[in-house]
Write a structure and sequence with these properties.
The protein folds into two domains: 58 residues, 3-Layer(aba) Sandwich (Ribosomal Protein L9, domain 1); 85 residues, Roll (Ribosomal Protein L9, domain 2). Helices cover 36% and strands 32% of the residues. It has three helices and nine strands, in the order E-E-H-E-H-E-E-H-E-E-E-E. It has a four-stranded mixed beta sheet. Strands 2-1-3 form a three-stranded antiparallel beta sheet, covered by helices on one side. A hairpin with a 2-residue loop joins strand 8 and strand 9. It starts with a strand and ends with a strand.
């Protein structure tokens, strides 16, 4: 019997997959627990439409990530932090502060978890950080840290 999984089933497949299982396994286990639905023409059509919509959404999000990557290359974010003189800062500049400054200065909203800092920024100067924007797209973010 062919069924469409509505949830991940260990040893069988992932959600949304069309699989072929024995009739008894489908009738006695998968269907009563609502882990799968029968693969009727309507259900197959719905599955194909959902797959198409998910692919279109992924394409839109990847295009948005690539656009953000191009924008990030061209701009510089200025972050001010309290310092103790001689170019040293009290504490460190965090990715949260960088994300907020990016939103304030350039109206680009990038989550703080997507900004990758190899080591903490504790001195005044210019830095280049990587941003993982999703869909294997990374951008370079230019940051200038100034003492307040």
């Amino acid at each position: 019997m062919k069924v469409i999984l509505t949830q991940d089933v260990k040893g069988q497949g992932k959600r949304g997959q069309l699989i072929d299982v024995s009739d008894g396994y489908a009738r006695n286990f998968l269907l009563p627990r609502k882990l799968a639905t029968e693969a009727t023409a309507d259900n197959l059509n719905t599955m194909k439409m959902n797959d198409k919509a998910a692919a279109e959404k992924a394409a839109r999000e990847k295009a948005q990530a690539e656009a953000y990557a191009k924008q990030l290359e061209e701009l510089t974010v200025i972050v001010t932090a309290k310092g103790g003189g001689q170019g040293r800062l009290f504490g460190a500049v965090t990715s949260d502060e960088i994300s907020k400054a990016l939103k304030e200065q350039h109206q680009i909203d990038i989550d703080r978890r997507k900004i990758v800092q190899e080591e903490p920024i504790k001195t005044v100067g210019s830095y280049i950080l990587k941003c993982r924007l999703g869909y294997e797209v990374t951008g370079k973010l230019h940051i200038e840290v100034r003492e307040a």
